Amino acid sequence: MHIHLILLLLSFQNHLRVEGSETETQRDALLSFKSQVSDPKNSLSGWTASANSSYCTWFGVSCSRSKGRVESLSLPGLSLFGKLPYQLTHLIFLNSLDLSNNKFEGQVPLHFSLLSCLELINLATNNQFHGFIPLFTNMINLTSLILGNNYLSSTTTLNYQLFDSFRNSTQLKMLMTYSNQMAGQLPISVANISRHLQHFCVADTLLTDSIPQGMRNFRNLESLSLEMNEFTGEMPLEIGDLRQLVQLSIYNNRLSEEIPDMFGNFTQLSFLRMGYNQFPGTIPASIGQCKQLNFLHLGINKLQGETPNENLSLSCRGFLKISYLDIRVATNNFAAENPVAKGGSGNVYKGMWLHPEDEESGSSLTLLERLNIAVDVASAMDYLHHDCDPRLVHCDLKPSKVLSDKTMGAWGFWIEYGLSDKTSTSEDVYSFGILLLEMFTTKMPTDKMFKKGLNLNKFASCMNENNQVLHIANPGLLKDCEYSSEST
Ligand SMILES: *[C@@H]1O[C@H](CO)[C@@H](O)[C@H](O)[C@H]1NC(C)=O
Ligand SMILES: *[C@@H]1O[C@H](CO)[C@@H](O)[C@H](O)[C@H]1NC(C)=O
Ligand SMILES: *[C@@H]1O[C@H](CO)[C@@H](O)[C@H](O)[C@H]1NC(C)=O
Ligand SMILES: *[C@@H]1O[C@H](CO)[C@@H](O)[C@H](O)[C@H]1NC(C)=O
Ligand SMILES: *[C@@H]1O[C@H](CO)[C@@H](O)[C@H](O)[C@H]1NC(C)=O
Ligand SMILES: *[C@@H]1O[C@H](CO)[C@@H](O)[C@H](O)[C@H]1NC(C)=O
Question: Domain span at residue 384?
């Protein structure tokens, strides 16, 4: 009887000790994180060792209610830099880790898989993560993995291991490894990723060989982004089984077999980009059955014949959207056979805006960049007006169309062009003028100063009549040039 009681007490004590050390381990892990990471904005200043501050109240940290287990670490966009301390892997109860948009560097800890409770991992846009992509073995609750915009590399063998490591992640919905240095083949084990997959993006990496078979398993796939790689061979017919697809993007690869007649089941498809490949033959008529399509680009291939435009619902709206990047290639700013430089012009303007007052991060375009865009848009218009058959006329040339919006991310930007005869080229030229004014005054037509009949156009004309036209440009833009103009 006594012995039982003693044993019970002992085990209770043990239990307490385990709980105590669990808390200490997590606090230590967080403090190691803080001590090893540079924090220019002092975002982690409240993370202090004093015994009375519970780490559960620290900025970016959330805990489970009952046991004070760190379940979420959310520190995006804080300009944190340095290496990711391996002590991070001591936070074994983490189910959400968001370190995106910082400046972390070096390797992602290879023992990442110890964090087996993770559901969301977002390490995107640190640009500096190097080394091999880690494996994510046995994360059974993983739903989103976003590693885009880093320098993580891989080989065919590692790709095989990587996709195999997701075998037990049966809840995976989003897998995004875009804009990294992944190389080699995309292995057939891709087909074993979760049936729940909705978003799969390996765009803008260095993958080669054929697109693997087995993608028909992804019945719930909504977006498939394989663009800007070096895939060869054919477009797998079975992709036509993915009835939920909204976005299919495989442009800028080296696919060289005829496009299969695979579009008949795409009742949701709204975005289709297959340009910059080597597709021969004709455009499958079934594209005409994609009733939701509002962006189609097949250009820069070896296709013959006409787009079955008459049956495309997009033609009802009178729009054929052409990406600006496409036009640049068409106008020989890049040689067509030379794949558009990764991170090239299409990305240069990414996430930047013409109007600094819209900007949170303050990285708006410089005068020179604006000038370059203006010249590019002018050459694109010239090409569309004079060299295209049928002649294309823009319908909606505005800065928002010229620059990517935030959600468009890696697609660069595009301009909408219409086929309508009614729109004349002079309207384009007028819009282009307004675009120039917006770019250099950095004022939107909706600016507070434009009321009682004053608009951007009148404002500029009026300043011009008073010989003040040089003063309409945003002085902030000219600041950068002062030094160089004084010294020349
Ligand atoms: C924590 O304790 C320190 C002294 O040990 C005290 O100065 C501080 O006010 C306490 N903070 C809170 C939040 O209780
Ligand atoms: C996975 O999720 C389930 C349900 O939320 C939970 O009971 C389980 O503990 C989780 N497992 C891991 C390893 O995170
Ligand atoms: C998947 O789970 C099984 C059974 O728990 C385990 O034996 C295997 O190692 C796991 N594989 C991966 C890749 O996570
Ligand atoms: C997919 O998973 C199954 C069952 O786990 C396995 O037998 C098969 O070899 C895997 N296929 C590939 C291509 O990895
Ligand atoms: C549409 O889906 C059905 C059933 O999944 C399939 O048999 C057919 O081949 C698909 N059609 C096309 C054009 O891919
Ligand atoms: C376009 O639709 C018409 C009937 O609406 C049909 O006869 C024709 O075959 C379709 N053309 C293509 C290319 O799908």
Answer: 318-488
340 within domain boundaries:
yes
Q: Which helix (H) or strand (E) holds 31?
A: helix 2-36
Sequential DSSP letters for 166-234: TTT-TT--EEE--SSEEEEE--GGGGGS-TT--EEE--SSEEEEEPPS-GGG-TT--EEE--SSEEEE-
What CATH number has the domain bearing residue 459? Answer: 1.10.510
pLDDT 10s per residue in the chain (488 long)?
455 555 554 454 444 444 568 888 999 999 999 999 999 999 999 998 876 678 999 999 999 988 889 999 999 999 999 999 889 999 999 999 999 999 999 988 877 888 999 999 999 989 889 999 999 998 999 999 999 999 999 999 999 999 999 999 999 999 999 999 999 999 999 999 999 999 999 999 999 999 999 999 999 999 999 999 999 999 999 999 999 999 999 988 999 999 999 999 999 998 888 888 898 887 787 887 777 776 677 767 777 654 444 444 333 233 333 444 443 333 333 222 222 222 222 222 222 354 444 443 334 667 777 787 777 677 666 766 665 544 455 444 555 444 433 322 322 233 334 443 445 667 777 778 887 888 788 777 677 777 777 788 888 888 888 878 778 888 877 765 554 444 33
The tally of domains found in the chain comes to 1
Q: Does this model's pTM top 0.70?
A: no
Most informative mutation of 52, 56, 58 for ligand 1 (most atoms within 8 A of CB): 52
Structural domain includes residue 414:
yes
Q: Which residues form ligand 3's pocket by a CB distance below 6 Å?
A: 137-138, 164-165, 167-168
- Does 313 contact ligand 6 (Cβ within 6 A)? no
Question: Does residue 73 belong to any structural domain of this protein?
Answer: no
Sign of CA dihedral 421, 424, 427, 432: positive
Q: Residue whose CA is closest, atom 1 of ligand 4?
A: 192
Instruction: Tell me whether residue 130 is in a domain.
Output: no
Q: Which ligand is nearest to the CA of 119?
A: 2
Residues with Cβ < 8 Å from 466, sequence gap 6 or more?
none
